[in-house]
Input
Amino acid sequence: MSIGLLCAIPPEWRHLHEAMSDVRDETVGPLAFSRGQLQGHEVVLARAGIGKVNTAMVATILAERYNAKTILFSGVAGGLDPTLAIGDVVVGTQTVQHDAGVIQDDRLEPYQAGHIPFFNPTEGFGFRSSEALVATAQAALADLELPSLSAAAAGGEPRRPRIVFGTVASGDQYVNCEMTRERLHRQFGAQAVEMEGGALGQVGAALGVDWLDIRALSDLAGASSRMDFAAFVDEVAASSALLLQRLLPRL
Ligand code: ADE
Output
């Protein structure tokens, strides 16, 4: 039984691929999977590409073909919580799909993905990772000090990144807008926004797979988020990969 490791884009994937030993690369159609060893575990590392559909496809393959009972996402996100800074890490213990729901009066009323209120209603909104996995991650990361960021990423003075646990909002939209950043934080109480975790949560719930969404902040989702993403994605993705490797031996 392998642990599934999931990334969206090459800068996220590279750190983990380099850290693995006994690597065997395989393809399934256009998708890349690498079996190997990491921190004493047999792992399968997959690079899904951006977005929820890609993520759902690859998470399902990890579960069904590679028999992964746990899938850990390692990557980057935009920060929503104004107390967080570029380089901080949000461990997503709950994901919400901010782009799913019903459009009324030209406005989206968010609703659980896979449901509409007048056909197959549900009380649920979002997907939670298992309490046991979250507790394991909290214990594993309690005394982890991430390396200081470069002065550029830290906005002047080098500073040590923080690690927080919380809600991650997910949608098939890159957020490059201050108003949307504020709304997503207010509406969903989310700490970070990205484009994949909501699908991982949904597949995990459907197939009985434990999951955790580990995200280092490459940007703060506001007007400069495109530039910040390009400048810092490599540097902060390394923190997320480091954190994942700290967690693995506890699993
Ligand atoms: N991933 C990294 N930054 C992001 C942003 N600002 N919006 C959506 N996904 C992201």
Remarks:
- DSSP finds six helices and twelve strands in the chain.
- The chain has one domain: 3-250.
